[in-house]
Amino acid sequence: MHEAQILVQIKNENVDSWQSLIRMSSLDGELFIHSAYPTSAADSVFFGPDTYRFARAIQATVAARDRTTSPVHRSVDIGCGAGPGAVLLAKAYPDAEIFGVDINKTALRFTTINACLANVKVISRYSDLLNNVEGQFDMIISNPPYLVDPSMRRYRHGGGALGSELSVSIVNVACKRLTLGGTLLLYTGSAIINGHDLFYDEVKQILNNSVLNWTYEEIDPDVFGEEISTGSYIHADRIAAVILTATKINSS
Hints:
The chain has a single domain (41-248), classed as Rossmann fold (3-Layer(aba) Sandwich), CATH 3.40.50. The protein is built from five helices and twelve strands. It has helices at 49-64, 84-92, 105-117, 165-177, 198-207; strands at residues 7-12, 15-20, 22-27, 30-35, 74-78, 97-102, 123-126, 137-142, 178-193, 196-197, 212-220, 238-248.
């Protein structure tokens, strides 16, 4: 572990101790390597409660999809992190071309390793959104960062005034890159201010003028409660975890 640079030595009052830089978690019968707590480094790769909610949403979407009329030949997980989304898709669609893209090179290394552990094929590629990946996709999934993080850690900082900038960008990209019958599954968070879901208001304007049929669901009314009344969220009621599902219904 020391030679692999995943073990660091810590000296405290002349007593040496060692700390692992990685941790392993289980999901759907597989093991996933990710960053150890605390995830304070700029290139930390997070794996936590949101990951498990995202996984359940993927499994529900896969189960609901008609494989006869809507086969999946190509799919991509935008901001793949440790790769759980891409691995779940690769297990569900073993003959499909599955991409895991991220701007965090540490995340791409973890995705590659975790796909090998799960014995599935995932193409790990450095890409800002889908800029470095060509073509259309039958399924686009994403669990992007959605908070405002003063340290701008890649797994946590969503951009914009309230963390929704990246999520909105993913919706815009999906509108252009989905095949006919293709589906976007986006798990993200939204600041609720004076009872209004601000992310919903943003994407409603985009999707109501698109060729996508979409649904929107709040699945947890209050996540990251410690963020409320501080910094960017001082006027927010709460932060909700939401799922947006959108399917392209015509080729216009």
